[in-house]
Amino acid sequence: MTAHRLRVLTSGSVRRVHRRVARPPVRDLPPAGHRVLRQVEALNERRIAQRLKTILEVLAGRRAPAQIRPLVDEALFVRLAAHGPLPGTRYRVGDLHVCRPSETAIEASTTLSTSGRVHALAARFERGRTGWVCTRFHVLAPRTGPIRRPSAA
């Protein structure tokens, strides 16, 4: 049987140093019963794209509608849940374009490629007390009829 031994890599004796973690004084804590608002996270392009894909997965039937309830406002949730799944629909999301019309609103647009067709997607996110929620979500289908030029009248 082989005997294993550990050897010390430092010369001399090793002394452990214990550091205390600084805790906030009690007077800095909110009073009991005080409702602390959660710090609202920044919504960058990566998070916007993730949220749009999550909503698309609900529309495609690959995710339960209850999973997007905290990500969308109540009116949009009711509309998306009533829409019903579109089974077999697979999307490829294109480049995301983001606009910030105000400090509390973000508007995003992108393209969706599916079965050789390209659709446009437009969404609006607004910051509320609980964080960023999607308030508008529209998938715009391409025209099915002939393309008409606008009249010069």
Automatic annotation (TrEMBL):
Pfam families to which the protein is assigned, alphabetical: DUF6459
Protein name per Swiss-Prot or TrEMBL: DUF4440 domain-containing protein
